[in-house]
Automatic annotation (TrEMBL):
GO terms for molecular function: manganese ion binding. PROSITE patterns: GERMIN. May play a role in plant defense. Probably has no oxalate oxidase activity even if the active site is conserved. Disulfide bonds join 39-56. Oxalate binds at residues 116, 121, 126. SUPFAM superfamilies: RmlC-like cupins (SSF51182). It comes from Jatropha curcas (Barbados nut). Mn(2+) binds at residues 119, 121, 126, 166. It comes from the Eukaryota. Residues 70-182 form the Cupin type-1 domain. This is Germin-like protein. Keywords: Apoplast, Disulfide bond, Glycoprotein, Manganese, Metal-binding, Secreted, Signal.
Amino acid sequence: MKDNHSSLAVLSFTLLLGLLANNSPFVSAYDPSPLQDFCVAIDEPTNAVFVNGKFCKDPNLFVADDFSFLGLKTPRNTGNKVGSNVTLLNVDRIPGLNTLGISLARIDYAPNGGLNPPHTHPRATEILVVVEGTLSVGFVTSNPNRLISKVLYPGDVFVFPIGLIHFQMNIAKTNAVAFASE
């Protein structure tokens, strides 16, 4: 009988500690701080550190070009079967983006149905701003399955939640351009 009482006491004490820890004002959770400010990606690993699938450039050798891209003002060819062209700016085009968790894209749409086909981003929410033309945009919720859609005009913004299937389509007789970040 004594063993049952002591086991019950230990269990009760453990549960009490768990409840106090969950309701305590001293308990906190947060994302860990990065080990460094950023990691400019390089292809050559000479005296480099490997982070996030890329080698990092020596911090004393960073230059402004590691953090910039010139050319998003240039329209892209939409003469393909979907009628769109995505110019993605990720770590491959801007090495300074490595480990920062963000990317940017220019999306050009052909007139009358240029489409950025249904797709998903399993690790990021996307925000899109229309700068030219008229786009029909939308995403499908998972529970319940519903289409959330809207027609956007220049200056309008739309958010596609993380992991949900989404699309954009040009519904005008002119070209359309949007910028998206995730």
